[in-house]
Each structure stands twice: as structure tokens, then as C-alpha cells.
Design brief:
Elements: H1 2-11, E1 15-21, E2 35-40, E3 48-52, E4 61-65, E5 72-82, E6 84-96, E7 101-110, E8 113-120, E9 125-132, E10 135-138, E11 151-152, E12 161-168, E13 171-176, E14 179-185, E15 193-199, E16 203-216, H2 220-228
Antiparallel strand pairs: 1-16, 2-5, 3-4, 4-16, 5-15, 6-12, 6-16, 7-8, 7-15, 8-9, 9-10, 9-11, 12-13, 13-14
Length: 229
């Protein structure tokens, strides 16, 4: 019994990991390893691939959603799984049709359940949403008195930006351009999940310097499953 107790103590210690991807090791025209595509309501799936951009933050390669056809799409980083973490990326909306909007996702379970931070170049707005059971719900943010989601913020086409979201338990902090933008609180999705990128239908965008720092630990339920085997 004492040995089992010691093992339990070791297992519940948090584990940490950091991944950084700048896409420079991938060949232009290919898809990078450890990434997968899901597309929502898309008769023709959007196309994501590595391309060259001599003006990229980390030259020369970036990951881009290059097709104006198709529906909303999530491009998911399959290598990192976490409930709490710190996610950042540099992005540039280059064009498209309709509402030109890009974003980042976390605690991704599947295409119907995840958190989304989106950046709209047409509405000049940054907002946070919970997608749950296929339904999208805006999450109120600190300091905003507007009935509209998120906050107003200029986002220009063909300009690089850096965005960061830190999430722990029900708390979320969003930074934009290396400064704190707003905080939010939501309990809707607490399970660990993947992280990734997102584009609204018709949006063409580029991404670079994708970084995720994750913290994970075994829950009591997971421990009970381990020791029943």
C-alpha cells in the first residue's frame, strides 16, 4: 500500500512541455507534420500549406490558409494536449471574401467543442467564443460595456500581429501586440484538449512562430483507470 501511495504522489505531479514551430523545416507546397485539418460546413475543404514569405517574422516559411473557397476551418496541432497552457502565434490576414477573420483555438475536443479567439479585419474586433455541441457562444470580457462580443481593435490586412492567450481553469487572459488586452472567465470546457489555428470561410491568412507551453496532470478519475488495469 505504501508503494502505491508513493506512485500516486509521483503521478499527480504536473508535467510541462513547450513546443515552438516556425515552419521553416517544411518544404513549401507541403503540409507540416503533426497538423490536421477539420472544416465546418465546407463542400470544398480549405487548403492549408507551407508557403514562402520573405517578410515573415521568422523567414522564410509560414503556414497559410490559401484557398478562398470552403467553410470555416480549424487546423489543429496534434502533438500538444493540455487543459492549462500558454499559446501564442504571429498572424497576417492577407485577403479573401466575406468577413476576413482568423483565430486561434484551445481545449479543442472536436470540430464542435473548443474555445476560439478570433480577429476580424472587417469588424476591427477581437472576441472570445466557446463552441460547444456545435453552438457558438460569445464570452463576456473584462472592461467591456458593449453588447457586442469582445473589444474593438484595429486589424489591418497584410500586417503582421502577435497574439497570445493564457488559460488556466476558468480564467483566460488575452494579450495582443505584446500587451494585455482583456481577461475572461468561463467554465464551459474544462477538459484538456489540443490547440490550433482557425479561419472563417473565405479568409486567406498566414501564421508563423506558433508556440504552446502546456501543463498537464492526471485527474483522480484517470488515476483510478490506470490502477484498475
Amino acid at each position: 500500500m505504501r508503494i502505491v501511495t508513493v506512485l500516486l504522489g509521483l503521478l499527480v505531479l504536473p508535467s510541462f512541455g513547450n513546443d515552438s514551430v516556425n515552419f521553416d523545416s517544411s518544404k513549401p507546397g507541403t503540409t507540416p507534420p503533426y497538423w490536421s485539418l477539420t472544416a465546418t460546413h465546407a463542400a470544398v475543404p480549405p487548403r492549408w500549406e507551407v508557403i514562402r514569405d520573405p517578410r515573415a517574422p521568422t523567414r522564410q516559411n509560414v503556414l497559410a490558409q490559401v484557398s478562398p473557397a470552403g467553410g470555416d476551418s480549424e487546423y489543429i496541432y496534434d502533438r500538444a494536449l493540455c487543459a492549462d497552457g500558454d499559446l501564442s502565434v504571429k498572424f497576417k490576414i492577407t485577403g479573401g471574401k466575406g468577413d476576413r477573420t482568423a483565430g486561434i483555438v484551445w481545449r479543442y475536443q472536436d470540430e464542435n467543442n473548443y474555445y476560439l479567439l478570433d480577429f476580424s479585419a472587417d469588424e476591427n474586433r477581437i472576441a472570445i467564443y466557446r463552441v460547444q455541441n456545435g453552438q457558438i457562444r460569445p464570452i463576456p470580457v473584462s472592461g467591456s460595456k458593449s453588447p457586442l462580443p469582445g473589444v474593438k481593435h484595429e486589424i489591418h490586412v497584410n500586417q503582421w500581429y502577435v497574439a497570445r492567450v493564457t488559460f488556466q481553469g476558468s480564467k483566460v487572459r488575452v494579450s495582443f501586440g505584446n500587451r494585455r488586452l482583456f481577461d475572461a472567465v468561463d467554465n464551459g470546457i474544462q477538459a484538456q484538449g489540443k490547440t490550433g489555428l482557425w479561419t472563417k470561410a473565405g479568409t486567406i491568412a498566414e501564421f508563423d512562430d506558433y508556440r504552446v507551453a502546456r501543463k498537464a496532470s492526471f485527474s483522480r478519475f484517470e488515476l483510478s483507470r490506470i490502477f484498475r488495469r
